[in-house]
Amino acid sequence: MTLTRDWRTLHLLGGPAVFLLLLLAPVASTPYAVRGSLGLLLWMSWWWIFEPVNLAVTGFLPLVVLALFDFLPVGRILPSYSEELIVLLLGANILSTVWTRWGLDRRIALVSLIGVGTSARRQILVWFAIATALSALLPNTVVAAALIPIVLAMLRFIGVQQIKESAFGSALLIAIAWGTSVGGFWTPLGGAPNLLTIRLVQQTVIPHEFLFMTWVTRLLPLSAVIAALSFIFVRFAFKPELQQVDGTREYFSSELRSLGNLTTPERWSLFFFVTATLLAFTRQFYASVLPGFTPAYAFLTFAVLCFVIRHEGEPLLKWDYAQKHMAWGLFYLFAGGTALGEILSQTGTAKYVADLLIPFTGAGGFRAILVFSFMTMVITQITSNTAAIAIMVPITISTFQGLGLNPIPFVYIVAVAGNCGFMLPSSAGGPAIAAGYGVNLKTMFARGFWLAALLWLVIVVMGYLLTTYWPGFSIA
């Protein structure tokens, strides 16, 4: 016990010590704001990985640090704590809490076990594949917010209450989080980073419209290889504490039958969640009619209805019940990761790091691919994938145009690397949501490091081959 306390004290003090060391270092060539941002990055990463305090508490550090050390006005990151994605998470969390209130989570768990099977590895791989496929067409945060409550319902049913302490539980949530990143660059609809890349290319490189089909066809070889290797990696990366969920398919089928037909509250709960999810997935069909009704507000609308619709004189959900059962830390952790990304971007820290490596790019070719993909891969692990793209794509375009080279193939490579955020909650929406629900961050960081390293090598080799031997890869 004493050793545990000693280690906790070390980690508790280690984060702020590293921050102060970087901030106060007498390095005139490195701006104060950059030193402060890098120090905060290391501090938050340290506390997220070793958890001397709750993950949600670490999410408040950007506010405290900026208020005290003023290397960026604290008001600049306040919107991160109330942004639209947090509203989405709030709505989705309320809707899944209604399941618990009326026992729908048990029914969903049984259906998942019957449909996917009781093999632990099969569960991990199937949920990874589902998340990957859905994220090709939908933002990764939406996919993670829709899938993780379903998996959590199944985990609770088989007795996994503390995700962090279960290798199987953490593996399932991490698989979904990684799937949302791996599938995110397949099509432009996969998320904001892709649409931002297209907009930047249209503004500065090509005089015509960048067609979505062009994106899909150019990146298809990379998408296919990365998806296949990621699937294999996920197969062997985790060692769940159980090989099979206790019980047979027949047992779970009998348990499901014993629940009888859906009750009225269960029907309402299921209808609200499914409808909100469908509205999020089909946003493009009604966006022109309801421009403000984004997925976040679709989920929140049905969440509010849970407190309004009554069954036998009682609302589907009472606030006292919701307050006790919701994952409040999820919102603060997500906000803290977003705020950290904003700090790294607005202080110029990410660009500062990238600029240090630009002289090593040479005159294009293999070395340029190596350096630019590495820069992007590193930045997207520490800040959001959208911020990574916002930083790296303009640098890529201006650098290669300055060298008299076509920047398009390098933009494709950077766009793929920018979607490969796996290690920290600040990397992307999927990892942030998984972290908020209690995934083991040491596992996500360590395994995510090796997945990022593997995919970086794939991007370098395939990027070089495509750039050298396929003329179409240079066309937008």
How would you summarize what this structure contains?
The chain is mostly helical and 476 residues long. The chain has 23 helices and 2 strands. It has helices spanning 2-23, 32-50, 55-58, 61-69, 84-102, 104-116, 120-135, 140-157, 167-182, 192-204, 212-237, 249-258, 264-281, 283-286, 295-306, 319-325, 328-346, 349-357, 365-382, 385-402, 408-418, 429-436, 441-469; strands at residues 310-311, 314-315.
What does this protein structure show overall?
- With 476 residues, this protein is mainly alpha-helical.
- Among the domains are: 74 residues, no CATH class; 190 residues, no CATH class.
- The protein contains 23 helices and 2 strands.
- It has a two-stranded antiparallel sheet with strand order 1-2.
- The longest helix is centred in the C-terminal third of the chain and has 29 residues.
- The protein starts with a helix and ends in a 7-residue tail after the last helix.
- The mean pLDDT is 85.
Write the layout of secondary structure elements.
Layout: H1 2-23, H2 32-50, H3 55-58, H4 61-69, H5 84-102, H6 104-116, H7 120-135, H8 140-157, H9 167-182, H10 192-204, H11 212-237, H12 249-258, H13 264-281, H14 283-286, H15 295-306, E1 310-311, E2 314-315, H16 319-325, H17 328-346, H18 349-357, H19 365-382, H20 385-402, H21 408-418, H22 429-436, H23 441-469
Antiparallel strand pairs: 1-2
Order of helices and strands: HHHHHHHHHHHHHHHEEHHHHHHHH
Q: What is the number of helical segments per DSSP (H or I, 4+ residues)?
A: 23
Record the strand order, biggest sheet: 1-2
Mean pLDDT equals 85
* Helix content percent band: over 70%
